[in-house]
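Students often ask what a 'structure token' actually looks like in practice. Rather than answer in the abstract, let us consider FMN dependent NADH:quinone oxidoreductase, a protein of 196 residues. Its sequence is given first.
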Amino acid sequence: MSKTLILKSSILGEDSASGMLTDHYIAQLDEPNLNVRDLAAIPLPVLDGRGAQALRGGENLDEQQRHLLALSDQLIDELKAAEHIVIAAPMYNFHVPAQLKAWIDLVCRAGVTFRYTDKGSEGLLTNKKVVVITTRGGLHKDTPQDFITPYMRTILGFLGITEVEFVYAEGMGMGGSLREQELNNAKAHLSRLAAH
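Now compare that with the structural description of the same chain:
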């Protein structure tokens, strides 16, 4: 399996700023065998009550539940195999896209990617580096409206992943020179990361 996992989540297709920045980063990586998963192009099921029951396993699962459990296992295997993870997380209505949240819900599994101890939860995925590319229509970095940065840092830490680098491109909806400058700054940041 590839040691680099790329997760795209924008619903904007070719017009996606986060997708363009992710492609810019991919082009500079010295990695011939990338695992790219476009969560918008091939959406994952939204977790419901029956799905939550499926992720706990057991012998009384129906075919649909067994399929969901197998899908979760596959996503977790991809995550475990990766040493380097790139997550495109554009801001939609102040949070991550539903497509990315669906992936998160399928990889956060007690006893598999984290466990409960008498001291609280403990992440089981370690020795991984994550780059989160987050684009926003407005200006939200370092403000109370930026829910993505603390959420992604928390959820990744919950899984045991603490080496996380955020790359921001803001003002995408504001156009003009601000948009261009933000994209150029993000590209430069990604180029520096790819060189290391």
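One point worth highlighting: The radius of gyration is 17 Å. Ask yourself how you might have guessed this from the sequence alone, and why that guess would often be unreliable.
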